[in-house]
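Collaborator request, handled under Task 6.
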Amino acid sequence: MIDQTLQEAAARRLKVVGIGVSAPGPLFSHEGRIVLTSNYPEWTDFSVREFLASRFDMPVHVEHDANVSVLAEKWFGKGVGSNNLVYVVVDRGVGAGIFYDGQLYRGHHGIAGEIGHTTICYDGPQCECGNRGCLEMYCSSFAVLTQARDVLGADAQDGQLTIDAVTHLVREGDPRALHLMTEAGCFLVIGVANLFNAYNPERIILGGEMIKAGEPWFEAVKESVRQRTLPEVYAGTQIYMSELETDPAFLGTGSLVISAAFENVSELEMSSATAE
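Structure tokens returned to the collaborator:
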């Protein structure tokens, strides 16, 4: 895909300033290396940056999907006008992108926001990360589908069940599917409430595959957050579902590459002015 895009750009005489990749984590963004990807062990310890840099002669930027998503929301979505916001991505794994005090907060190794691997049940089932009772084992799309195949039985479509299929059942009023989704939303709140207390964001934006569940899931999340946080804190924090038409991870990654290109130009200009 990159080869094809570069060929098209060359044919149209367009300048390409870099390659951007968003990936799930835990991810060491400073190395561009995936530490662990839930349910995809073959990607463990794979350096996306090294792989692409060895094949293409241009800058390669690799960032956690939640981090670039919070940038997309900050620039184009529900985060416009806010300098303290959190984007929670709920897919096969769960993570948070934290935009704190006007900048992206990555932490020492670049893995801040990995709420999916925080413990909500100290003696729960073992997670791929080695911990037990991790949040994402209870509220991710993978967790919901795992439970749905047992709960829905014949409606599981011979193992081809998807979140789209489960949400379709929710819209049709299936009580089993509705229970699965609302329960997952309530589990997610444990991580969201911790974000409230740890970072006190102005806004929290939810995105990822699980928002396909729509209002029943979202209302379950908001009501559970209300019950688990101080009334004054809840009243002063806005909670949204992402409404960006373009996938926030793609939008944020492209914007990250463009920003880096402008920063490089500015640094070159400053170096030139200093030399003169």
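The cover message to the collaborator said: "The domain at 81-244 is CATH 3.30.420.40 (Nucleotidyltransferase; domain 5). Residues 170 and 177 are 5 Å apart (CA to CA). Please let us know whether this matches your experimental observations."
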